[in-house]
Amino acid sequence: MTEASHDDLHHIGKRMTDRIDPAARSRTMAAIRSKDTKPEKWVRSALHQQGFRFRLHAKKLPGSPDLVLRKYHAVIFINGCFWHQHDGCKAAHLPKTRPEFWSRKFACNVARDQKILYQLKVLGWRVAIIWECGLKKKHRDTTLQQLVSWLQSGAEYFEIPVYDEFSDL
Ligand SMILES: [Zn+2]
Questions:
Q1: How many angstroms is it from 42 CA to the middle of ligand 1?
Q2: Which of 5, 47, 103, 104 has minimal CB crowding within 10 Å?
Q3: Three-state SS across 129-141?
Q4: Rounded to the nearest 5°, which phi and psi values hold at 131?
Q5: Which residues contact 18 (CB under 8 A, 6 or more apart)?
Q6: Do residues 43 and 28 both lie within one domain?
């Protein structure tokens, strides 16, 4: 038996990819989303150190926010720039393969996130979105300080990063 050529492997790989239906893909993405990620741990430990107490992944709230601080009427989402399509961020590029599938998929993700924000607002929650690019090493301390200030401020909505300079990451 001869070794499979690169092309063969490519075709096999492609067939396997095609077999995954969109529903299965969403399940996979949901799994990725709910996993304890490093950026999430950074946020948790920073807040914990400063005496904030919170619940994790509150399933009863719209979008299962990553952190819930009841005392502050606040929820925090730590969003991956790719899956949640951080506007203007380099990490939010469209994959080269099956661009139409991905742009539809991403449009759904973004619409879903908007709906969740609205539902939380209606329920009286304050919402902070931390984009993962804002948690890169050189920005992390600033981001976490801003988050703490926001928690104490009582402002309704907060998104980090909000500055153009972050778009070049
Ligand atoms: Zn980003």
A1: 16
A2: 5
A3: EEEHHHHCHHHHH
A4: -80, 145
A5: none
A6: no
* pLDDT in 10s for each residue of the chain, 169 residues: 444 444 444 444 444 444 555 555 555 555 555 456 789 999 999 999 999 999 998 889 999 999 999 999 999 999 999 999 998 888 888 888 999 999 999 999 999 999 999 999 999 999 999 999 999 999 999 999 999 999 999 899 999 876 544 444 4
166 CA → ligand 1 middle, Å? 7
Same domain, 12 and 91: no
| Ligand 1 mean position, distance from CA 59 (Å) | 25
Q: CA 76 to CA 145: how far, in whole Å?
A: 14
Expressed in angstroms and rounded, the spacing between residue 119 Cα and the centre of ligand 1 is: 24
CA of 100 to the centre of ligand 1 (A): 22
Give the bridge partners for 65, in sequence order: none
